[in-house]
Amino acid sequence: MRLGDCYNTRDFRAFARRRLPGPVFHYIDGAADDEVTYRRNTEAFERCDLVPNVLAGVADVDLSTEVMGQKLDMPFFLAPTAMQRMFHHEGERAVGAAAEKFGTMFGVSSLGTVSIEEIGSTIATPKLFQLYVHKDKALNFSLLDRCKAADFGVLALTVDTIVGGNRERDLRTGFTTPLKLSPRSLMSFLRHPRWAFNYLTHERFELASLKDHVAEGTSVAVSVADYFNRLMDQSLDWDTAAEIAEYWDGPFVLKGVMSVADARRAVEIGATAIMVSNHGGRQLDGSRAPFDQLAEMVDAVGDQVEVICDGGIRRGTHILKALSLGAKACSGGRSYLYALAAAGQAGVERALGLIQEELVRDMKLMGCRTVRDLSRQNLRFR
């Protein structure tokens, strides 16, 4: 399979599956419990139809938007995802460079594998840092200080991971960070010699922003669930969120908000935006899809905070449907992680290029010149 044969997320997923050892692929691909919510996140878009207008004279389309004070060339940005150098040795360096090429925002995880400082000095595109609140309060505020110094424009506080989800694929494969060899995983690594060579011969895998504070994940192998269960602050509450927002004193988004009541509380603590998200179905299985919940959230607080739809997005038409409901922008993780695993920076650039092409083509077919022309008049629900 060649990169040029990839035309959509399914193709990138198939390519990634060929390139990655089983435990690593299933970490990206898997979700919680029976993975009902994971599937539902994308299926939700299929229950909504687009209603185009014609004869609109749309030779030129402008995809640009502004969200959380950041000017983007397209209404889709790269959500923060952990451990990217495990999927491809270029990791965040490749993803950030691709985001910069397409003029969109690059989300960086607390569990990232390239340091905040390096990203700040090498990536000029708008940057969002995603904070997991650890029990170690000094660590939390140290991360914020480093992000301020590195010119990150947005802070995202993830609020749906005080414990790890029940990701049964990881339990079956024995996935840990860093990777721990077992007879089964060793055979999978040996069947993927290119990945194994790159993983072993490039710089040592580490959680670059956390390695000086915690051993887990860098020098001590743990499952993702154990990391969350041991180190996350399970007492995280609204007072803590408000304290973090005040300390950051800049564009601030709560990631993982799914209820109207919580959206209203986000307004009260001064959030700039909320990301309607269920963590890609990786936490609470059986929870509602972000797209299904989007209209309710926009109607409740859309005139007070920016609402972002995160999760399940596989097509440009999915983005248009979310924008038509009132989302200010969309974000996704797997849609570019498969491409990263398949071909590094070139893969992420191809994935973003295809999304951009779909958006331009579909906007013309919808009869819309700008994303601001989209509205609920464009939609019908079955």
Verbal overview:
It contains 16 helices and twelve strands. It has a single domain, classed as Aldolase class I (TIM Barrel, Alpha-Beta Barrel). With 382 residues, it is of the alpha/beta class. Strands 4-11-10-9-8-7-6-5 form an eight-stranded parallel sheet. The two termini are 37 Å apart.
CATH class, named Alpha Beta
What is the structural class? Answer: alpha/beta
User: What characteristic shape results from the CA principal axes?
Assistant: globular
Quaternary form: single chain
Shape-level CATH architecture: Alpha-Beta Barrel
Distinctive features:
382 residues, alpha/beta, TIM Barrel, globular
Quick structural summary:
By secondary structure, the chain is α/β, with parallel strands linked by helices. It contains 16 helices and twelve strands.
What's the topology here?
Blueprint: H1 9-19, H2 22-29, H3 36-43, E1 48-50, E2 65-67, E3 70-72, E4 76-78, H4 84-87, H5 91-101, E5 106-109, H6 116-122, E6 127-131, H7 137-149, E7 154-158, H8 168-173, H9 183-190, H10 193-201, H11 224-231, H12 238-248, E8 252-257, H13 260-268, E9 273-276, H14 290-301, E10 306-310, H15 316-325, E11 329-332, H16 334-366, E12 379-381
Parallel strand pairs: 4-11, 5-6, 6-7, 7-8, 8-9, 9-10, 10-11
Antiparallel strand pairs: 1-12, 2-3
